[in-house]
Amino acid sequence: MSEELREDLSQIIAELEKKCGQNPNSVMAVHHLGLVYMKAGRVDEAITCLEKALEIDDLSHESMINLGAIYFGQGNVAKAQELNERAIASQPESAQAHANLGLIWQQQNELDKALASYEKAVQYDPKLITVWLNLASVLTMKGEDDRAVESSQKAIDIDPDSPLAHNNMAVALYFKKNIKKAVHHMNRAKELGYSVDPNFEARLNEQLA
Fold this sequence. Notes:
about 210 residues, mainly alpha, Serine Threonine Protein Phosphatase 5, Tetratricopeptide repeat, TPR-like_helical_dom_sf, TPR repeat, TPR_rpt
């Protein structure tokens, strides 16, 4: 973090701390202070603020989402799952909560549950490229290669310069035995800076020869 950004964050934190002191029951002020603490790397203080926001309003959807993200990053999967399920209960059409829950299920190798959560996420927000990327990975693991290609294409449509989207497409096409197109997307992923698995690259080039 640059010194300039650190100074800017310190100033914002001071202003928000003052607002929270003046109005300690303001969910918005407490929540925003928590977010800035997160950005500043002050994780424990961020947790305290977001927990406080939920004490003030137990339906504070964004506080659940952000607090869940912190706990997931810390490896507290159970707490992250609980918070995202609460977020979905309060707002069933929350694409981000469904996306986060999908990632939690995927980490636990619960692929069917991950797939269901990701599908709900893109149903509510079809522009979430990370979800299409994760969907492609899960579908490949499940052997649903046609759908993996479709999901990879969705990601490429959203961001044609996404290296991961092109790599995912290469993998999906490899399993569909479309080697020529797979090599094309692999090379595009490399051009965009992706570190392609050398073993995968060798297999592709071997089959192309």
